[in-house]
Amino acid sequence: MKAITRAISSAMQDCELTHMERQALDLNRARQQHEAYNQALRELAVEVIELPEQAELADSVFVEDAALVFDEVAVITLPGAESRRQETRSIAEALAPHRQLLYITTPAILDGGDVLSIGKNVYVGLSSRSNSEAVAQLQEHLRPFGYTVHGLEMGQCLHLKTAVTALDDKSVLLNPDWVDAALFSGYDVVRTHPEEPFGANVVRVGSSLLYGAGYPNTLASIEALGHTVRVVDMSELAKAEGAVTCCSLLFK
Ligand code: GLY
Question: For the chain, what is the mean pLDDT?
Fold first, then answer.
């Protein structure tokens, strides 16, 4: 398995914030956490392709938003925040050797953070960053490969994957305040602990899970189901409204 990641921008303090107040960000600490994240991926047998810093693009560490990588193709997004639109160019260059590239185009907007793929089902959160035109374009791009794309209403959080991610092909981890659990009635639903609203974001890396520190009750629920969980501290990146899924594009 491979992962594209990108070094943190020196301008990260000026990142987009939608549902969060701006807090002072310790860039050195953020960089240490990001390196520990890369290292955790390596220890899970992932080949990490770390792209150089794009200093002028404050949010560019959050590579997940710039593309979706499927086994068959990659889709380059059109990020919903104008300040993030330049991020896609270098991600397209990095993915070109690995996949045929398809593009989301205006009037669609799409952040990869709003896209949760589970098997052949692709769920797209209709957030401030992603719209129904993107759902239609994505469906056209992916139909030849047998995927079904579903647009989902969601609550007051940045991205769909702030609210729900997959633990495996049959179960999801979900904050019911931000996404209706009934939308995932075909899956076993594990709920975040009520005191850990940001605990729904987890990355599947092979048969393991990569998870942010700070959600001990939700972590205990996940581990009780038999999952192997590697925990990394993302507290500084969280001040930029990012979490574990945001920092990598994982593909075979
Ligand atoms: N700061 C992450 C984002 O708003 O896209």
Answer: 98
Closest CA relative to residue 233, chosen from 208, 210, 207: 210
Nearest CA to 248 among 26, 77, 46, 28? 46
How close is the Cα of 59 to the center of ligand 1, in Å?
A: 6
Q: What is the largest CA-CA distance in the chain?
A: 46
Tokens matching residue 181:
């659990």
Hey, CA dihedral for 153, 80, 251, 248, is it positive or negative? Answer: negative
Q: Ligand 1 site: residues with CB under 6 angstroms?
A: 15-16, 18, 59, 62, 81, 158, 240-242
Residue 157 annotated to the active site: no
Given this model, what pLDDT does residue 238 score?
98
Q: In the predicted model, what is the mean pLDDT of residues 123-142?
A: 98
Q: Which long-range contacts (CB under 8 A, 24 or more apart) does 139-146 make?
A: 141/73, 141/75, 141/102, 142/70, 142/73, 142/75, 145/70, 145/71, 145/72, 145/73, 146/120
Question: Tokens at residue 155, please?
Answer: 């609550």
Model pLDDT, residue 244: 98
Q: Six-digit token pair at 122?
A: 């692709």
pLDDT-derived band of residue 163, with 50, 70 and 90 as boundaries?
very high
Instruction: Say how many Å lie between the CA of residue 136 and the centre of ligand 1.
Output: 24
Residue 159 annotated among the catalytic residues of the structure:
yes
The one-letter code for the residue type at 37 is Y
pLDDT-derived band at 208 (thresholds 50, 70, 90) equals very high
